Amino acid sequence: MSDILIVDDERDIRELISDILGDEGYTTRLAGNSEEAMTEINSEPPALLILDIWLKDSKMDGIDILKTVKRDNPDVPVVIISGHGNIEIAVAAIKQGAYDFIEKPFNIDQLLVVIRRAMETSRLRRENQELRRNDVQTAEMVGQSASFRAMLGQLDKVTKSNGRVMLSGPSGVGKEVAARYIHAQSNRASAPFVTVSCASIEPDRMEEVLFGRETPERGIEQGLLEQAHGGVVFFDEVADMPLGSQSKILRVLVDQQFQRVGGTGKVRVDLRVISSTSRDLDAEIEAGRFRQELYHRLNVVPIAVPSLAERREDIPVLAAHFIEALNKSQGLPLRELSEDASALMQTMVWPGNVRQLRNLIERVLILGDGNGPIEAKELPSSEEGVTDDDGVVLSGTLATLPLREAREVFEREYLLTQINRFGGNISRTANFVGMERSALHRKLKSLGVVTTNKSGARVARVEKVEEDAE
Ligand SMILES: Nc1ncnc2c1ncn2[C@@H]1O[C@H](COP(=O)(O)OP(=O)(O)OP(=O)(O)O)[C@@H](O)[C@H]1O
What we know:
Layout: E1 3-7, H1 11-23, E2 27-31, H2 34-43, E3 48-52, H3 62-72, E4 78-82, H4 87-95, E5 100-103, H5 108-138, H6 146-159, E6 165-168, H7 175-185, E7 193-197, H8 206-211, E8 212-215, E9 219-222, H9 224-227, E10 232-236, H10 243-255, E11 257-258, E12 267-268, E13 272-277, H11 281-286, H12 292-298, E14 301-304, H13 315-330, H14 339-347, H15 353-367, H16 403-421, H17 426-433, H18 437-447, E15 449-454, E16 457-462
Parallel strand pairs: 1-2, 1-3, 3-4, 4-5, 6-13, 6-14, 7-10, 10-13
Antiparallel strand pairs: 8-9, 11-12, 15-16
Helix pairs in contact: 6-7, 13-15, 16-17
This protein binds adenosine-5'-triphosphate (ATP).
Residues 137-138, 140-143, 169, 171-177, 236, 276, 278, 321, 354-355, 358 line the site of adenosine-5'-triphosphate.
Domain Response regulatory: 3-119
Keywords: ATP-binding, Nucleotide-binding, Phosphoprotein, Transcription, Transcription regulation, Two-component regulatory system
Domain Sigma-54 factor interaction: 141-366
């Protein structure tokens, strides 16, 4: 759902708009009358509808189409094209729920501004819907490890207060889940939880999105702060908020009130503020990208959400939780996790944290065949991984073996590498690895490592043992 449907009875006009939008990277569909328009909408609702209000040779006029769309697909924004001098009709269309209107003959820049804003509105609506859909899932906090329980203890302490909380931690650790947990456990649970995705709102629209706006045509449109009244507003990735908006938010926090864009009166809201950051805010302040006063206001109770690497013992329970959740929500197979798959997961590198774990489980369930337990071989091999700073990560197969066998695998790999490094020279290898030459020989024999001559160079490989000839 990312295309734009253009409905106009004048072929030149619909093709002109389509060309302009095509140049801007949008995909378009075209319809020349109401029947074609309704067929397109019913087969797949577009992300945006551009609708001529006067349609010749059509059963329905533009207003009828608008009403039908607003009834059946209320989230599709509709931009009306009206003839010059038909402003009253355009205003009437806006009262019926049209997003905006453009007058013929229109100017390209004006057209594009309206379209961009309408598309962004559509995107934000979809995102919000998505969040609402994930609500139940994201309010659930799964984990048993000590670091997870310590964090949960901190969250429990703040649920009953109104204190502003700053959740920090890398991407995908569950900061939003933690914010929703606070909301769900607090006495604001029945009031809204509204997320402000600071990174995805266009800076020049931030004020309108947060504070809402007032126009003669459409009256009052509430912003996110007003929508969150009585509940919780969650500033996700607060460090991505433009400096200008930071000052405005600061003023709201101090005054407890604000003005809508284009409005004159003051709006009072009762909000609990929770914020999140994956960046080091001290460094952002130092670099002049974040306002110190705002930081002090938001950071009353700082809570660090541990990375998945800090709570590897939670990986099997999280995996089992996601398998069950994906079975319920998408009907994916309800598979168990074999012990070696579980062990391998606990040693993998997780830069994307819990979100990456969830995505991996989803991928394995979609691609895998059968309903048997998930095996280690279905998981990405260690070569796909990245190295981890804390060095706790082993190569894939090692993690799944008992110590004796793992040691053998390691010794074999290690000695093969060293012998080849020293061009097959056992004495130099023995010297480097810190073993007697004869002991190294015995070791190689027991591991099945042989050294052979290949194109004049000595190489080691695993097979039957051969006499060393130096
Ligand atoms: N403890 C948990 N129990 C269950 N699911 C979790 C847990 N932590 C995270 N998740 C899941 O991991 C995914 C990412 O979580 P969330 O969006 O809260 O992370 P985040 O830290 O806010 O990420 P970002 O900073 O990238 O927005 C979500 O699908 C969420 O449901």
